[in-house]
């Protein structure tokens, strides 16, 4: 996706700068699924205000897929900003691939469930209800990201249903879980709420109980060798600013400042 907006700064900025024009830059942003909806809503306003172009590269925060952000960086792909799961970003920091001090906390993401639009609503709001829903579901899908790893390796076991649900459960690679539920391939799907809500044809059921949640922190940073480090830092500060938090929360995320 490309957001291409190249304008002069706003009137107030122009008055301050006289007749000088803002130098437009192409800022390359690698972002993983959980924060993408918020970024797509907020990015155009930043681009307009700064006169820059945002070039967006989508990919998971981890995993073996060539599209995964760490694998892209390993291949030498250039980026000015990376937005990803916090602990995956920590690994890049340990590897020396991130500019020191550039990490910015962006949002927390919780796990929710969907069914196909028009299907009977199910309950996942209490441990007992979630357990019964899992046992009665004909098929279950979950993502290949942090939330899906938790569902597969921990959530089922905590509910004591791992053996019963394993034969009818599937980790979905690359594809949004809600989309395979919307097509009718699976009856019940789990993923981070912010990745479920944008998909048409699926009905959001709700978040899993807080006592069983796995909260994923999303953060951004500037990779070593970024061509536009100053602009990248400005974008991250904007995405984390109090003024944009209503938009962040509307996409299904939780503000870091609210925790």
From TrEMBL:
Protein name according to UniProt:
Molybdate transport system substrate-binding protein
Q: Which SUPFAM superfamilies does the annotation name?
A: Periplasmic binding protein-like II (SSF53850)
> Is Signal set as a keyword in this record?
yes
Gene3D superfamilies of this UniProt entry? Periplasmic binding protein-like II
Choose any GO biological process term that the UniProt entry carries and state it. molybdate ion transport
The signal peptide here is 1-24
Task: Kindly give the InterPro entries that the UniProt entry links to this protein.
Answer: ModA/WtpA
Q: Which UniProt keywords are given for this protein, alphabetically ordered?
A: Signal
- Look up and give the organism this protein is from: Chitinasiproducens palmae
Which one Pfam family would you cite for this protein? SBP_bac_11
């Amino acid at each position: 996706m490309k957001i291409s907006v190249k304008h002069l700064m706003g009137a107030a900025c122009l008055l301050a700068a006289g007749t000088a024009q803002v130098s437009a830059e192409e800022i390359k942003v690698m972002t993983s699924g959980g924060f993408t909806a918020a970024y797509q809503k907020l990015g155009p306003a930043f681009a307009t205000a700064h006169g820059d172009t945002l070039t967006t590269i989508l990919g998971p925060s981890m995993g073996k897929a060539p599209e995964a952000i760490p694998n892209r960086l390993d291949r030498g792909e250039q980026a000015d900003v990376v937005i990803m799961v916090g602990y995956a970003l920590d690994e890049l920091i340990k590897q020396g691939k991130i500019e020191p001090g550039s990490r910015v906390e962006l949002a927390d993401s919780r796990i929710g469930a969907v069914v196909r639009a028009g299907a009977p609503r199910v309950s996942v709001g209490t441990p007992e209800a979630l357990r019964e829903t899992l046992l009665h579901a004909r098929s279950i899908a979950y993502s290949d990201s942090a939330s899906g790893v938790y569902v597969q390796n921990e959530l089922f076991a905590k509910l004591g249903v791992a053996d019963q649900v394993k034969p009818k459960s599937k980790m979905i690679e690359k594809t949004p879980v809600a989309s395979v539920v919307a097509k009718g391939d699976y009856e019940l799907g789990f993923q981070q709420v912010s990745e479920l809500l944008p998909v048409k044809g699926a009905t959001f059921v709700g978040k899993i109980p807080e006592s069983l949640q796995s909260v994923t922190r999303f953060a951004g940073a500037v990779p070593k060798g970024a061509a536009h480090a100053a602009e990248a830092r400005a974008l991250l500060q904007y995405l984390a600013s109090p003024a944009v938090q209503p938009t962040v929360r509307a996409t299904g995320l939780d503000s870091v400042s609210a925790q």
